Amino acid sequence: MKTSNLKQLFSIPVVVAALGYFVDIYDLLLFSIVRIPSLRSMGVVESDLLSQGEFLLRSQMIGLLIGGFIWGILGDKRGRLSVLFGSILLYSLANAANGLVTSVNQYAVLRFIAGIGLAGELGAGITLVSESLPIRLRGYGTTLVASVGLMGAVFANFIAKQFDWQIAYFIGGGLGLLLLIARISVFESSVFLKLKEKEQHIERGNFLQLFNNKGRFKKFMGCIFIGLPIWFVIGILVTFSPEFAKALNITNGVIAGDAIMYSYIGLAVGDMASGFISQAMRSRKKVVRLYIMLTLAFFVLYLYMPIRTPTFFYFTCFLMGVGVGYWALFVTIAAEQFGTNLRSTVTTSVPNIIRGTVVPITYLFKEFREQIGVLNGALAVGVFTVIIAVIALRAIDETFGRDLSFYEE
Q: Which domain holds residue 274?
């Protein structure tokens, strides 16, 4: 790659967005990593760790869902930078406060507030990067943001092993506040400013525009549901990995934090690869279809693994991470589908709506596991998510190389 291209690729908006997503993932996944020790310290008995963990996860995901709409609309009405500053301040303070909780109900309220804050980071960052980079570098830029950001899960696991769960939360809050200072040097998107100044008659951030046009609604729903397998894997299979290890009779002690770490290393590898493959194939949709099929194969291997040891278990977590490594493409596709006046609304709400689907997925998994067992129940839910994603992929446009200087009327 030419020196000039590298200079643009590693520009301040890209670097700051990548670091922001790093902190976002640290704070988002830290709960899953410290779920068991934090609940035990509050007196939750072993038999209730799964159900209480699901309750807290749902609280966080509902916050993400609500926050996705709030920050997305704000990003189109007030600008991308307003979201980057506001969201990181909220989730940094909320995550620091998580280290002070003494009851499950307090925990749930703060996970909900943190979820609202965490919802704004990725969408605003990807929107800003997509509008700041030239078309030839856009795919590389969003891939870089996602790949660097996903390593926040690895860092969260490292910190959780070195310190008590309360200190791990304090560190996450502190990192966010430090990054807030770094964001002072970031400039607003020129594409957004042009629309704001020269096209003042264009309505910005009107969420209802996604529903009053059949074509837009179809694309919006397609953007959401192609990501369904990603959060089935992360939200169910990886988050509750100790319970799945037990169902597989792996008794040597699988640790949730390690499972998350290995899956997110795989996710970073998969994201980096899918971004480069997409650039080489000049297609988003073909690569997403390939990765959905890989995800299916890898989670079947996870659920019915032939070698039942902790080492192989963690290896399958890594493979599942690679399979769902189309997360960057998933968010990039959302940014490229819609015009500047709705881009932030869509790009911020879509990943958080799909994160929010963990709520119905956990309920669905609960029903299935009570009827046909943990492993078969997970398989049924997983296959369902893959079928929906494949159908949804047909509803969206191929957006590789699209000029983003347009708006929705």
A: 13-182+209-393
How far apart CA 257 and CA 261 sit, in angstroms, is 6
Give Cα 286 distance to the centre of its chain. Answer: 21
Record the tokens describing residue 225, joined without a space.
């549901």
Please report whether residue 48 resides in a domain.
yes
Query: Which residue in 140, 314, 285 sits closest to 222, CA to CA?
Result: 285
Residue 3 in any domain: the answer is no
Is residue 7 in a domain?
Answer: no
Domain containing residue 109: CATH number: 1.20.1250.20
For all residues of the chain together, what is the average pLDDT?
Answer: 88
Q: What is the pLDDT of residue 130?
A: 84
Give residue 200's pLDDT: 67
∠ Cα 44 100 68 (to 5°): 90
Alpha-carbon distance values, 131 to 36, 53, 344 (Å)? 41, 38, 11
> For the packed helices 49-77 and 104-118, what is the interaxial angle rounded to 10 degrees?
30
Q: Average pLDDT of 319-344?
A: 90
As for how many domains the chain has, the answer is 1
Tens digit of pLDDT for each residue in 227-236?
999 989 998 9
How sure is the predictor about 16, in pLDDT bands with cuts at 50, 70 and 90?
confident
Tokens of 136: 């030839």
Which residue in the block uniquely carries the two structure tokens 């795989």? 266
Encoded amino acid at 389, one letter: A
Q: Which two tokens stand for residue 215?
A: 């074509």
**Does residue 192 sit within a domain?**
no
Q: What is the DSSP string of 48-115?
A: GHHHHHHHHHHHHHHHHHHHHHHHHHHHHHT-HHHHHHHHHHHHHHHHHHHTT--SHHHHHHHHHHHH
Nearest alpha carbon to residue 287 among 317, 318, 325, 320 = 325
Residues 6+ apart with CB under 8 A from 404: 130, 131, 191, 335, 336, 340, 343
